[in-house]
Specification:
Arc Repressor Mutant, subunit A; ROK; 5-stranded mixed beta sheet; about 20% strand; single chain; Nucleotidyltransferase, domain 5; about 40% helix; WH-like_DNA-bd_sf; ATPase_NBD; 14 helices; NagC family transcriptional regulator
Amino acid sequence: MQYLAAHHNATKQELKTACNLSLPTINHAVSTLQAQHIIVESERRASTGGRAALAYAYNPNHRIALGVSVNNAHVVVIATDMRGNIVLTTERTMVLRTDSTADIPVCVEIIRTAITQLERNPLYGPVAGITITVSTNKPNAALRPANLPVTLTTMWSADAFERALHIPCTMVTHTLANAQAELTQQSVQSAIFLCIGTHPDGIVMINGRALQPPVLQATSPRITRSTRSNTALSQPAPTASPLSSRFAHMPVDPNGPQCSCGQHGCFTALCSLSTLPEDYESIPGFFSVLDQGEAEHKRRMNTWLSNIAHVIVLAQSFIDLPVIIGGDAAMFLADDDFHALQQRVHQLSTIPTQSPILRSVSMQHQDAYGAAILIALRERERYGTLASQ
């Protein structure tokens, strides 16, 4: 199946040669995949005297992948075929409340409406799975209730959606979904992806897949000498938001600002866009004044870029890969800022690196699209295994 997915079509004899398999094995694989509508008969090749050979082609519509992004009041549902081609996009607005269990049925109905639209089209197979990503990050942090991320990820579970829709559902972080979409648009398949907004996070992608999938459960309590007792260990400690991955709380500067996880100088605390504006400013307002050359804004910007450079150097000291800057930062940073960031990284690195720092493509509905791609990748791997059984 992997060969047919990568090529236009092929006969059984061509598959035998390309895959270095016996003809009985090819016959079995073709029959199995054809029964599942994963491959279809394509065309008859020109005959050289005998019977014309039948070619087979991959059918990317045999299953449909659904990605759902819930971003504050905005819900986006994107459906793709198994090659990642978008076949449906739905956008709706809903009001998110702190008691978010009441919002699940509303979101379920939005998803169900999209599924019904797909089912009406005979070209598309059934929905193979749904990936949901919840993000409440906005350029203006004042728009976001402080407890909303914790509430959403605590109360919104994949099980609740599975029970309502009867389709396999998974919840992933905003960062993973964005990174997965990014690699479909970039020329690289392995990269360190930094999603920098008001709640920065990061993830390492190797050969198109996450090296360390982000965790949605709370982090372990921090243990000190004063708390090293059975009583202390049995009591829950303040933890980071469940939206945060381990990358977000990578310690960068022990003398830095305190983070929500209790540590000082985490990546997410040092590099948040919300650290840039003055109390009276919005983030877009900060960059507007920065463009006018105001000295204090330039100083704050230089400090912020240096913090990001430290994060990049720290990450590349373990795994030297290109870095992709995504999130709202990709929209606000100018080309000169990327050049300055690259220079800082070279100055700080003890071992020189040639890995570039790239700007995110920032495609529309990137997180919802990436969520769908995760399903498509899983299904292609699963049916590749099916053909070999």
